[in-house]
Amino acid sequence: MRLLWAVDHGLRSLSKRMQADLGLSGPQRLVLRMLGRLPPAMPSTLAELLHLDRSTVSGVLERLEQQRLIVRLSHPDDGRSVLIALTARGKLLDRDTPGTVEACVRRALATLPSRKIAAAGKVLEAVASELAAEEERLSRARAKR
């Protein structure tokens, strides 16, 4: 548990530093980097890929749009939906950058053999799955009240 809290604390601290230095928080940068690897995507697709609530993604997208880093496009098949894409300015920030969360993760992973990375991935998947299941159980219990 101590290690999970240490990772959470490190992510939050570096996110604040990134906001001050780059103008992007950790979640904003993650969304920007994901959009750089996807064709234009629906906000719901981003929420699913990032394991975030749609409302959280909406707030992140709003801030990225205010900075003119993303643009909302009409969905060609569904006029009620939008697709999100990087602007030219957003594409300039979609690059490896020192002082970011992903740079720290990349350096840490480079020190480990692939079998340890795979094992750690399985542990994190199990923890994430159990946390999601507990949240679902609690939500159902609240709804019954």
Descriptive labels:
145 residues, mainly alpha, Arc Repressor Mutant, subunit A, 2 domains, two-stranded antiparallel sheet, 2 strands
Characterize the structure shown:
- Helix 2 crosses helix 4 and helix 3 (43-50) packs across helix 4.
- This protein has a two-stranded antiparallel sheet with strand order 1-2.
- It has two domains: 2-111, Arc Repressor Mutant, subunit A, CATH 1.10.10; 113-145.
- The chain has 145 residues and is mainly alpha-helical.
- It has helices at residues 2-22, 26-35, 43-50, 54-66, 88-93, 101-110, 114-144, and strands spanning 70-74, 82-86.
CATH topology of the largest domain: Arc Repressor Mutant, subunit A
Query: What spatial order of strands do you see in the largest sheet?
Result: 1-2
CATH class of the largest domain: Mainly Alpha
The CATH H-level superfamily of the largest domain is Winged helix-like DNA-binding domain superfamily/Winged helix DNA-binding domain
Helical content, roughly? 55-70%
CATH architecture type of the largest domain: Orthogonal Bundle
- Global shape: globular
Overall pLDDT metric: 94
Number of helices: 7
Total domains: 2
* Count of strand segments: 2
Beta-strand percentage range: 5-15%
Integer-rounded radius of gyration: 17 Å
Poorly predicted parts: none
Strand-pairing-aware structural class: mainly alpha
